Amino acid sequence: MLIIVSEYLKLFEEPQFDEEGNFKKDLLSEENSHLKLQLPLKEGLLKTNLGVPLIFLVNKSDVVTQTGERKRFEEGSEFILKHIRSYALTYGATIIYTSTKQNINLNVLYDYILHRIYKFDLRHRPNIMDRDSYFIPGGYDSLAVLKNFDMQNELSMLYEERVPPVKVKNLLKEDEIVCEDVNVFLKRFVDKIQRGQTNMSRRNVSDYGTEELTRNYITNEEKDKPAMKPEDYSSNSRVNFDIFKTNSVKNPSVDISAAKATTVADKIV
């Protein structure tokens, strides 16, 4: 595998296209391949041979096109790219900038993997012009090319000296809220309901209005009893009349005639 990686980098040639943009093979280069294998590698290329093809993927390259991030990205993008190229040169690696969001260089990545594994023809030219879609295949770069590219001698600078650190916003630390155990909550809730029912049963009947007394009477006394028979309606009417009568002593505004009318209607039924 060490020899295969080394031979590939020696034989690397940019793909050729005709005037109509159709791919064409360089037959002359294939005939001279045995001569190229006898030549040494380019300066600085493959100082460390791991025996496997390497690809450096720089993801989310669409950030450079975003208005809010463009200025900060452009300030250090060239410097970052130089160091990536220098590092990739040492391992004979390929550099591909990709973005799944904008579908940038995904086809290039797929075709290049097929090219390296199954020897398919490489049909994509190197791209060092577009910031969001760099494609620098292994064997293209050399130390001489990088030096010509590094006009400001930035390769000798440290990363921290050239790229400012990202400022972290000071976020207020909120107190942690611990959730109560559900079993404890349910037990406390049941206890409150039971205490409320006990207090309700101890309240004086005279404290209730007519509507509440009637409702509680039906709820507490008639809830578990069977359905009333037709002959029981008259007794129920007397109960309702007594309720109105009792409440009228306390509250004169209650119309007793309404209770009487209800009683008479029940008797007619």
Enumerate how many helices there are, as a single number: 11
Q: Which percent band covers the strand fraction?
A: 5-15%
Give the radius of gyration: 44 Å
Based on CA inertia axes, which overall geometry fits?
A: elongated
Number of strands: 5
Q: Give the helix/strand class.
A: mainly alpha
* Strands in their spatial order, largest beta sheet: 3-4-5
Residue runs with pLDDT of under 50 for 5 or more positions: 204-214, 216-223, 233-241, 252-269
Largest sheet: 3 strands, mixed
The first-to-last residue Cα distance is 104 Å
How much is the average pLDDT?
75
**Strand-and-helix sequence, N→C?**
HEEHHEHEHEHHHHHH
Q: What is the total number of structural domains? A: 2
Oligomeric state of the chains present here: single chain
Helix content: 40-55%
Secondary-structure topology with pairs:
Layout: H1 2-11, E1 16-17, E2 23-24, H2 27-31, H3 33-36, E3 55-58, H4 67-91, E4 94-97, H5 106-118, E5 135-136, H6 143-149, H7 159-162, H8 182-202, H9 210-221, H10 233-250, H11 256-268
Parallel strand pairs: 3-4
Antiparallel strand pairs: 1-2, 4-5
